[in-house]
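User: I need a structural model of Tetratricopeptide repeat-containing protein from Flavobacterium swingsii for a docking pre-check later this week. Nothing fancy, just the predicted structure tokens so I can convert them on my end. Input:
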Amino acid sequence: MRSNFLKATKTNTMKTFNLVILFFATLVMISCEKKSDQVTNPKDYNVFLEMKENKSLDFAKYEIDFWQKKFDAAPNQITYLSQIASNYSKLFEITGNINDLYKTEELLLKSNETFKYSQVGTIRSLGRNYISQHRFKEALVLANKALAIGEGMKETQKLLFDVNMELGNYTEAQKNLNALTDSKDFDYLIRISKWNDHLGDLKTAISFMEKAKEVAVKNDNKALKIWTFSNLGDLNGHAGNIKKSYDYYLKTLAVEPNNSYALKGIAWIAFSHEKNTNEAKRIIDAVSKKHNSPDFYLLKAEIAEYEKNTVDEKKNLSSYFKMLTNNNYGAMYNKYNTSIYADNKSTSSKALEIAKIEVEHRPTPDSYDLLAWAYYNLGDTKKALEIAQKYVENKSFEPELNYHLAMIYKANNLEDKVKPIKKELQSSLYELGPIFEQKINNL
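Assistant: Understood. Predicted structure tokens for Tetratricopeptide repeat-containing protein:
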């Protein structure tokens, strides 16, 4: 009897022991899984959030003061205006102050008018300024004006490629790209990278951007290193290489410690990949003190939506629109405004108005998607489908556009067309953000 009891006790003890082992093994597995999801480490980037000095900002201000004094002493030296304009453009990149962008335009207009639009370099500079302002058709006029003069043709072809891509003139853009084809030229490499990204070939886009990075590093060019590192951060994120994306953002910050774009990229990783909303908000709050842009309010509103914090969501959207009211951003935020207005039935008609303007100014698949989405939210699903099939379907690989497409298909009972898009969207959740997870599951 005692022997049987001991056997039973031993058996039960072994079962308990095995259960304990299994329990701890499960905990270790969960811990490892969580650890593998963790990419960011505040120790890597806290120093950049806490920085007080900004050498790039100080240098741009110094250069403006230097060239302004030279111009004041010799007002006939119009070329000085381009130097001043260039540094105001840098100020805009650093601070996000829209007035610096308009000051750049003012100086370049004065310079071009004095030269009677005969200097291709100054014409192209104004064209680039118009691209930043989303005045793409005006930029195209200037690019063609530079082309007609005939000097610096390669540089003008680069500008034409950039403008035509923004306008959705993809056949023309490809011709502009074919006019370059120098595999060692940095500007060609970043543009063929962009072209392949447009075609949906992300792997090739990354490979060309890597080659551009090699050129930047070899020449030890600070501006080009910042450009390639930050773009590789973006491209790798879209490809699902989150750790690589994070490392490239850190590389960007090592070159330019105050780079707001890279810090915003890290905030997105914390939010979208790690679901660490508190850390994402901490980063955004620190960055927005240095770089004042409406984008940050939109990101905070998106985080609040994910947290189901309607008070904070409304508060951030209100701050976003207040900033647009207090500053003239022109058409720069039309895309975001259309999306916000379209999602609310009381403002859907306003979304339609803006979408029509966007299509007129910039007839790209993105603009037509906004138009189709506005009609969808107004309940005109047939009109939405007509526009989407003609101007959006198979013309873009942007996840949000494809989500809209799937919703429009679903509303028109085209379930067979929804399934493949749903599968593709599930692999694009990082790029779309956590608030889309349930939306995609409901497709």
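Before docking, keep this in mind: Residues 53 and 175 are 44 Å apart (CA to CA).
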